[in-house]
Each structure stands twice: as structure tokens, then as C-alpha cells.
Write a structure and sequence with these properties.
43% of the residues lie in helices and 17% in strands. The protein has 373 residues and is of the alpha/beta class. It folds into 2 domains: 211 residues, Isopropylmalate Dehydrogenase (3-Layer(aba) Sandwich); 157 residues, 3-Layer(aba) Sandwich (Isopropylmalate Dehydrogenase), CATH 3.40.718. The strands form 3 sheets. It has a 10-stranded mixed sheet, with helices on both faces. It has a two-stranded antiparallel sheet with strand order 6-7. The radius of gyration is 21 Å and the shape is globular. The structure holds nicotinamide-adenine-dinucleotide, 3-isopropylmalic acid and manganese (II) ion.
Length: 373
């Protein structure tokens, strides 16, 4: 009897709006190169979300899209949101499709790594002496807080939202942050507003409790306002930065200043039934359709998919290394103000893919040499 054929790894691709399709195409092409060089079998299926779904289906997250995501190993998303749909009520806006997707997948921990490479110090608008050595990981709670709290409402004279957390919601994301810190520099900074907010007082108490199970990891607490300042004053002092949903949203865009562009930052959303990967940036309507969007955040999100969902650490590292080395040579989209060699989205993507193949082949030949020695 012949062995059953291995089924391909199904990856749901949701390009979305604005620059979403442009950057996602580059990330998918990178995964195709990875599959080719390492003999993997990835099967990509494309589905509508956001404004693109509203235009054809009348809803920002069609059932068919969520079902396809739930039937996949991982989801790779571009971005949602478009000025055309800005006037819709909140529950019909493209953004609500993304929130419903995160909820539907059950992901609750959003990892947003931020690194400043030694060879790319010039890309930052901040002084090299400030950003040198920056290597931090924002762990943003993704399924609770102000985004989802009830009651919420809007009428002609009042709009309101509720910031609430349960101990269970805080504990699960805190545990993940401490686990992740163990593979890094073993330091967690928990960011809250416990001097004012009850939800933050609970947050702090639960994080303290979880920390007792991780005696090898150092914990400190910072208020979100002073953390916002510390992030650009002494970014290299942070390792894992654990925070609630809205604070994490804001701090991660701020952190994009460190490497020099929002277009560089990737993210991984974990903890649910299917993992979700998306760049931190939005649909960037101001530059959409011009072929100049930075694909690096999307490509590095694909690298996180390789690492976190597929456990393909070598492939993930090589894709990150390929990206780093092409950027270090001076190639970059126009958002990287100091790029010596300005290129467009597809050019940058294909340079990264070529470099990946070169690295994979030189690694393979080194491996062969080692085997024959
Ligand atoms: P944005 O992140 O889309 O853009 C902010 C700035 O960064 C713009 O100047 C843009 O040109 C630039 N930028 C973003 N991504 C870039 C890239 N890949 N390459 C080069 N430059 C890039 O934020 P915004 O303008 O506040 O929002 C636009 C729309 O995107 C809104 O509808 C918003 O709700 C939505 N949004 C979606 C997501 C998401 O899908 N995850 C995230 C943030 C915002
Ligand atoms: C992000 C975005 C989303 C968020 C929006 C579009 C719902 O800003 O992924 O950072 O606030 O989470
Ligand atoms: Mn955001």
C-alpha cells in the first residue's frame, strides 16, 4: 500500500483594501519562493474582507471568508479601510470586518516585534544613539478592552464605550508574554493606567500574580503616558511590552518611528483556533495604487507565519535575513526616507525573494560540505 500523499498547507489570503493587495501579493510570492526552495506544499486561497467585501457582498466579513479562514492553517491579511466607506455606521465599516475576524478566530495575543538593525540606523528619524540596539516585542491584548466592551452606543448627543477586562482575559495574554520573554531577554514591562482606571488595577494585580510563575523573568510596570515617552527616549531598554488593546494599538504605531516606517512592522495574532498574520499598518489610501507601498511589514508577517504556525524556523530566519540584507544594501520604498536606492513595491519584493534563494542555496551548499566532511 502506498503512503497517503501529504495534504498541502492551506493558507487563507485576505488582501483587503488600499495597499493591502499590493503588499500581500509580495508576501504570498515570498511564501511561494520558500515553498519552492524547501519543497513545501502551500495552497493559497483568496477571500474578500473589508471594503472589498462590502462592495460585492454588502458586509465587511462574509460568512464564506470566515469559514475559509477557519478551515485553513493560517490567515495572511493585508489591510482594511477606505475613505469611501468612512461614513458607514461602525458595525458596517471595513474595520469591523477585521475585528469580527479576530473574534471569530479567537486570537487574543497580538505580537508586534520592532527591531532597529545596526545597518539601518539612518532610516530612523531619531538619533542613532537613541535607537541603536532596539529589539522589543509589543504583546497587545486583542480580544477585549474598549474595542469590544459592552455597553457601547451612539446617539445625537452621546457616544460611549466600555473599558472592561476579566481576570481570565488578562491572565491568558500575560502568560503568553512571560513565555515569550523566556526566549528573549527575560524582561516584561506591563503598561497600564492603574493610577486612574479600575480595569488597569485589575490588569496590574493579575500580571503580578502570573509573574510569580515566572521567577526567571523580571517584571516592571509603567503608566502608558510615561511609557509613550520612554519608547522614543530609551527604546533599547524594553524587551517585552505587555499591554491592553487600545494602548497597544497606539504604542505600536508610535514604535514604528524607531525603525523609520510603519510599513516595516509585522504582526502575529495568536491564541485562537487559527493564527492571523498582518502588517501593523493600514490601507494607506494616500499611496494606494501607485506601486510604492512598503511590502516589508507584510513579508515579515509571512516570516512570523512560518515561525509561529508552521514551526519552520530556518525558513523564517532566512526570509528575515534576506529582507534585512536587501534593506541594508540601501534598497527601499519612498517611505524609507534615507533609502539610497529607491524602488517600488514589486521591485523590493523580488529582490528579497532573490536574496532568499541565494541564502537558501548557500546554506544548502554549506550543509552539503558539512555532510561530506
Ligand atoms: P495607515 O497605516 O493606513 O497609514 C498611515 C501612514 O503610513 C500613511 O501616511 C501611509 O501612507 C503610511 N503607510 C502605511 N502603510 C505603509 C506602507 N506599507 N508603505 C508605505 N507607507 C505606509 O493609517 P491611516 O491612514 O490612519 O488609516 C487608513 C485606513 O486604514 C483607515 O481606514 C484605517 O481604519 C485603516 N487601518 C487598517 C488597519 C488594518 O487593516 N490592520 C490598520 C490601521 C488602519
Ligand atoms: C490595527 C488597526 C486596527 C486596530 C483597526 C483597523 C481595527 O489599527 O490593526 O492596528 O485598531 O486594531
Ligand atoms: Mn493600529
Amino acid at each position: 500500500m502506498s503512503a497517503p500523499a501529504l495534504s498541502p498547507t492551506r493558507i487563507a489570503v485576505l488582501p483587503g483594501d488600499g495597499v493591502g493587495p499590493e503588499v500581500t501579493a509580495e508576501a504570498v510570492a515570498c511564501l511561494e519562493t520558500v515553498a519552492q526552495e524547501f519543497f513545501h506544499d502551500f495552497d493559497f486561497t483568496c477571500h474578500a474582507i473589508g471594503g472589498a467585501a462590502l462592495d460585492v457582498e454588502g458586509v465587511p466579513l462574509p460568512d464564506a471568508t470566515l469559514d475559509a479562514c477557519l478551515a485553513s492553517r493560517a490567515v495572511l491579511l493585508g489591510a482594511v479601510g477606505s475613505p469611501k466607506h468612512d461614513a458607514l455606521p461602525a458595525h458596517l465599516r471595513p474595520e469591523s470586518g477585521l475585528l469580527a475576524l479576530r473574534k471569530g478566530l479567537g486570537v487574543f495575543a497580538n505580537l508586534r516585534p520592532v527591531r532597529v538593525e545596526e545597518g539601518l540606523l539612518d532610516a530612523s528619524p531619531l538619533k542613532p544613539s537613541i535607537v541603536r540596539g532596539t529589539d522589543l516585542l509589543i504583546v497587545r491584548e486583542l480580544a477585549g478592552g474598549l474595542y469590544f466592551g459592552e455597553p457601547r452606543g451612539l446617539d445625537a448627543s452621546r457616544g460611549f464605550n466600555t473599558l472592561a477586562y476579566t481576570d481570565t482575559e488578562v491572565e491568558r495574554v500575560a502568560r503568553m508574554a512571560f513565555e515569550l520573554a523566556r526566549d528573549r531577554r527575560r524582561k516584561v514591562t506591563s503598561v497600564d493606567k492603574a493610577n486612574v482606571l479600575e480595569s488597569s488595577q485589575l490588569w496590574r494585580a493579575v500580571v503580578e500574580r502570573v509573574a510569580k510563575d515566572f521567577p526567571d523573568v523580571a517584571l516592571d510596570h509603567q503608566y502608558v503616558d510615561s511609557c509613550a515617552m520612554a519608547l522614543v527616549m530609551r527604546p533599547a531598554s524594553f524587551d517585552v511590552l505587555l499591554t491592553e488593546n487600545l494602548f497597544g494599538d497606539i504604542l505600536s504605531d508610535e514604535a514604528a518611528v524607531l525603525p523609520g516606517s510603519l510599513g516595516l512592522l509585522p504582526s502575529a495574532s495568536l491564541g485562537g483556533s487559527v493564527d492571523l498574520f498582518e502588517p501593523v499598518h493600514g490601507s494607506a489610501p494616500d499611496i494606494a495604487g501607485r506601486g510604492i507601498a512598503n511590502p516589508v511589514g507584510a513579508i515579515l508577517s509571512a516570516a512570523l507565519l512560518l515561525r509561529h504556525t508552521l514551526r519552520l524556523d530556518t525558513e523564517a530566519r532566512l526570509l528575515e535575513e534576506a529582507t534585512r540584507s536587501v534593506l541594508a544594501e540601501g534598497y527601499g520604498t519612498p517611505d524609507l526616507r534615507e533609502a539610497r536606492l529607491p524602488v517600488g513595491t514589486t521591485d523590493l519584493g523580488s529582490r528579497i525573494r532573490r536574496r532568499f534563494s541565494e541564502l537558501a542555496w548557500s546554506g544548502a551548499s554549506r550543509g552539503l560540505v558539512a555532510l561530506t566532511e
